[in-house]
């Protein structure tokens, strides 16, 4: 499957200069006035595809979910993984195109804003429902349930596509009739919706504590204040401080990679201590004294990497349990951007468990009774040494191929 990044046309909030953003951009530096601003969003971005609809035609927008991320399906033979890049209607309306097709790739999108023209149909399907329908096997006869799977979203957004109705449905980009039969007496304005209330928020990139300029790469979900050695993530109303730590590096370590350490409540299986984990995974580790008092921490990468590698790193780190002392601040040195939100990282914990819990068959049978609830988390940086083709973390035996990391931005 080919994957793509969207581009978004917008204006600098400071000087109004036009700019083009990549879908993954969070930190925007204006080429004209040099002011940097951070794109704050509570849940996901909402875009609209620019329309070329005749003035008099009743323009309306249908929402589509866009999901780009990893899909894991555990089975007896092991875990299947793939990268998913799909779009699906967020409304149940027969006769509309089943996906956005190539439209969203070829055009520059705009952020949704309250001053946009047209009737914006309100989403009726959650992302889960929309993707579920997409993954359901298409066979005749009774609908079959989808086999268990887990999605880890790297990019999730809502894209509004323009249409108008004139004795039939017309595509508002191409100005051409859309094949497919709409319900009789179709009246777009009667669909629930209206003027969008959502708008993009720009946050000033200043440390909320000391007022210094915060730093970060353009696609980073986390900004750093070098003055306070603190890490901040955008929240509903400004920035929220993250708990951040790092393992001290050696002189030849030249890159810090971010990981999430997640403390979680696991319901439906006994996982109260690290000793339980060792037992569950049937590790050939001699049961050491003290393991029963060590809590279980889940670890996942906080950066994008190919699905198979992501899952292996999650399982490996969770089982090795790096308990060495950390330093409770952002490390000094080169940092890799945090590009995977912790919310999505939590979704990776179940598929990771299925890779190491023994016996696998019994575990898969009671998968639907197991719940993982995150309690707390922190961002932990690990120092890596550079080799010609790899980044190496000697202490915890992690090797990450450079090309895997480089390509991860656009898999
Ligand atoms: Zn500007
Ligand atoms: Zn500060």
Structural account:
This protein is of the alpha+beta class and 411 residues long. It folds into 2 domains: 7-194, no CATH class; 243-410, no CATH class. The protein has helices spanning 103-106, 127-135, 274-280, 307-320, 342-347, 349-356, 360-365, 402-407; strands at residues 7-11, 18-22, 27-29, 36-40, 45-48, 59-75, 78-89, 108-111, 119-121, 150-165, 169-171, 176-177, 193-194, 201-204, 222-225, 230-235, 238-242, 244-246, 253-267, 298-301, 371-386, 390-393, 398-401. The radius of gyration is 24 Å and the shape is globular. Bound molecules: zinc ion (ZN) (2 copies). The site of one zinc ion has 8 residues, from loops.
Give the arrangement of secondary structure elements.
Elements: E1 7-11, E2 18-22, E3 27-29, E4 36-40, E5 45-48, E6 59-75, E7 78-89, H1 103-106, E8 108-111, E9 119-121, H2 127-135, E10 150-165, E11 169-171, E12 176-177, E13 193-194, E14 201-204, E15 222-225, E16 230-235, E17 238-242, E18 244-246, E19 253-267, H3 274-280, E20 298-301, H4 307-320, H5 342-347, H6 349-356, H7 360-365, E21 371-386, E22 390-393, E23 398-401, H8 402-407
This protein binds zinc ion (2 copies).
One zinc ion binds at residues 12, 14-15, 17, 30, 32-33, 35.
Quick description:
This protein is of the alpha+beta class and 411 residues long.
Number of helical regions: 8
Low-confidence stretches: none
The outline comes out as globular
Structural class based on helices, strands and sheet pairing: alpha+beta
What's the pLDDT, averaged over the residues? 90
Helix content: 10-25%
Using the CA coordinates, give the radius of gyration. Answer: 24 Å
Report the β-strand fraction as a percent range.
35-45%
Q: How many domains make up the 3D coordinates?
A: 2
